[in-house]
Inverse folding.
């Protein structure tokens, strides 16, 4: 079992807490030694080897574990945060604070607070841990309607109804009407994907991704490790 951090935006944090999000897709990073052409050339069946997904490059003959979390691994969630302790003006100050507490912007957007970006969250302050239960390597556009909803896409029972991502405003950024055509949840997810990734890997490019399914535990990862 390995333990790694993972970043989420405020709307996705709320989806995790509400139980609406049990999947996430992340760009598949190519090993530095691998050939770019055809990446990944082949994903080995995990049952053929040691239970971990493998990547095989025909051009180089190299075989290696995919550099991604695997079933059973733990992901501790990083999110935008602050600390109410006296004198906690920097992230390092928060480690020395003798009073106060950690607050999370996703659920308590304190006016005037000095928020720290999620990338700077310390492991000890994380409140959510994900246990990976399944990993699939696929093209981004292979996402199904059920998968899109597991990513946090929700249907609003308006007139007419539409799919969207709660918490992203205006709703038009991710909204897709149910009557607008096939696979509205997938199309809503595609809009969400491009909001986050259009500059490096837009939906239209159909990049390779790792699709993780997970259990959400509302506790610090150290508690999970201690109980393992």
């Amino acid at each position: 079992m390995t333990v790694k951090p993972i970043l989420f935006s405020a709307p996705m944090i709320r989806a995790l807490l509400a139980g609406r999000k049990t999947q996430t897709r992340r760009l598949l990073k190519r090993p530095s030694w691998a050939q770019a052409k055809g990446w990944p050339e082949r994903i080995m069946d995990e049952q053929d080897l040691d239970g971990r997904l493998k990547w095989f490059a025909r051009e180089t003959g190299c075989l290696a574990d995919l550099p991604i979390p695997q079933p059973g691994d733990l992901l501790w969630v990083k999110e935008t945060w602050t600390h109410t302790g006296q004198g906690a003006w920097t992230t390092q100050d928060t480690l020395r604070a003798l009073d106060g507490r950690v607050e999370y912007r996703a659920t308590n957007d304190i006016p005037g607070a000095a928020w720290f970006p999620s990338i700077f969250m310390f492991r000890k302050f994380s409140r959510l841990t994900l246990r990976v239960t399944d990993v699939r390597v696929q093209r981004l556009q292979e996402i199904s309607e059920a998968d899109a909803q597991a990513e946090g896409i929700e249907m609003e029972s308006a007139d007419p109804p539409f799919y969207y991502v709660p918490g992203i405003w205006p709703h038009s950024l991710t909204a897709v009407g149910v009557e607008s055509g096939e696979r509205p949840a997938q199309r809503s997810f595609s809009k969400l994907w491009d909001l986050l990734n259009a500059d490096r890997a837009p939906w239209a490019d159909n990049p390779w991704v790792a699709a993780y399914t997970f259990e959400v535990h509302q506790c610090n990862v150290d508690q999970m490790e201690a109980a393992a």
